[in-house]
Amino acid sequence: MKKIYRWIKDLKLRNKLYLIYLAAGLLPMLIVGIYCYHFVNQLLVEREVKNLQNSLNQAMGVVNNQLTIYENMSDYLAFNQAILQTVSYPYEDNYYEMYNQFSTVFDPMVTSLKYLHNDIKQVTIYARNDIERHDTTLAPITDIEKEPWFAQLAANNNKILWVMDKSQKKVFCVRNMPQLQGESGVIYIEVDYDKLFEPFTQMLDENYGVYVQKNDKMIFDYNVFKKPYDEMDFSEKNITSLKTANDSEFIFVDCDSKEEIGLHAGLYRPTSQIETTIRPMMKTMVLIYVISIIAAIMLLTQLTRIIVKNIEKLTQNMKDVKRGNLEVTVVSDSQDEIGELIQGFGDMVERIKTLIEEVYEGKISLKEYEMKALQAQINPHFLYNSLSLINWKAIEANEKDISKITLALSKFYRTALNKGNNVLPLEDEISNVKSYLDIQLMMHDYEFDVEMDIDERMYYYDTPNLILQPLIENAIDHGVDLKTEGRGKIIIRGWSEGETMYLSVEDNGVGMEEEVAKTIITQKSKGYGVRNVNERIKLIYGQEYGLDIKSKVGEGTTITVKLPIVIRKGGLNP
């Protein structure tokens, strides 16, 4: 408890206010929110279960209505006097009369049912044994006496018997014709199996299963599932096991048809799918709750800021002063202790600032004088004038080599200094390189050859100043100068690919080991010329640009410069 007390005591005032809000406001809200979440979640689950039950009831109602329609048709045929007279009339050998009755009376009445209801597949009346077979609408009763349902029909008196077979996908109803005097007759109406049970396949889009039983025997089943349920066994036995296991993985609802038909339907769906259905509502509720908490925190933040802002500003000012920043940004006209503290701190800092400025400004002035003196010593105009004087003196003395090297040196430094700019057109960089090579060739008594292959379209591309000269100097000093056999050669190339330009300096000197080549542009290198070029390029354009060095011992070295293409339009800022 002492540690907790000490921890609370050491908290900043803003955090203490937040802690009070957390203990007195946020924590109760969180508890109530969790309870409401679970309560609403349960209500939504119950609502979804009711929706499933309603969907199943509606589908069963549609099937019930259809079966009732078929039963009414059967009643219509069973008690229709015209049909009874046609079927029971003793035609003997008068085939014309029989054909006339069948064509004008019997056929229109029976076949019209199929025309009006395209889901009826067959309507047949089975009458006395000596009746003539007529298409599929009339047949002798001996055709059905061996059917397994015929005995049930006899015991069923005048009630309609529905026979449904899942394996053969057949659904039909049969009934006796009670008004045939002294004779037996059966009306057989077969309907489309798939159309009858179609309402059960259209209740939901996916992830559900449905089954229909008659006398505890499955006569129809349908399911459409996604992974992982699509590979499960939903046979009659397994569905019964899932239902009786009271497992929370599936939700089951069921309903019955009217008692005379005796159908029982069941609908099952994964609990996870029901949760998926209600998840958007739960997310909305959680979002509203989170927004409420955020709004409360923002209100608390504003109130806290009003209370402690001056204290926090004073604390920050003190930290800034400690780091060397003497700009005081907090003021207060309050007459309380905090106001007096702020005013006293401001006066103290202003006094310290005045004392520091007196000493600092004196040192800055001294440095400025020293810098101007140094700049005067390296004034480029003085250098150019001196070289120009040497050139004229060489011309007067007819010293052409001295004049040539003096002009090359003057041109080299003029492009190298570039009026203080760090960026210049590639054309000027090539001119600088040519001047440098003229000097080097004269110094080496033209002991090596130089070849240039630069795409002239690149002359207007901007490049950093002095990126090729250090590479050529390296090729001379560490390449061709050390070559003992054959004549040295330096090749300078320039080309572009897409948005990138490449410059390379290749020599046929002594080359170097691969490990040594890798260290030239790193901090491990003793020299800094090539490394400096690489670091400048990366600093200006980014890490994807810079130098690439390839070298083989005895064959030479190639250094390739990779730069982005920047077309000169008035130049870049140095």
Describe this structure in words.
The protein folds into 4 domains: 1-315, no CATH class; 326-371; 378-418, no CATH class; 421-564, Heat Shock Protein 90 (2-Layer Sandwich), CATH 3.30.565.10. A hairpin with a 2-residue loop joins strand 13 (488-497) and strand 14 (500-507). The radius of gyration is 52 Å and the shape is elongated. The strands form 4 sheets. It has a 5-stranded mixed β-sheet with strand order 2-1-5-4-3. Strands 11-13-14-16-15 form a 5-stranded mixed β-sheet. The chain is built from 16 helices and 16 strands. Helix 9 crosses helix 10. The protein is of the alpha+beta class and 574 residues long.
**Low-confidence spans:** 369-378
Give the overall form: elongated
Gyration radius from CA atoms, angstroms: 52 Å
The biggest sheet, with number of strands, parallel, antiparallel or mixed sense and barrel status, is: 5 strands, mixed
- How does the helix and strand content classify structurally? alpha+beta
Contiguous helical run count: 16
Oligomerization status of the protein chains: single chain
SS elements, strand count: 16
Which helices and strands occur, and which strands form pairs?
Layout: H1 2-10, H2 13-78, H3 81-88, H4 95-116, E1 120-127, E2 138-140, H5 150-155, E3 161-165, E4 170-176, E5 186-191, H6 193-196, H7 198-201, E6 208-214, E7 217-224, H8 236-244, E8 250-256, E9 263-270, H9 271-323, H10 337-377, H11 380-396, H12 400-417, E10 423-425, H13 426-443, E11 448-454, E12 462-464, H14 469-478, E13 488-497, E14 500-507, H15 514-519, H16 529-541, E15 546-552, E16 556-564
Parallel strand pairs: 1-2, 11-13
Antiparallel strand pairs: 1-5, 3-4, 4-5, 6-7, 6-9, 8-9, 10-12, 13-14, 14-16, 15-16
Helix pairs in contact: 2-9, 3-4, 9-10, 11-12, 12-13
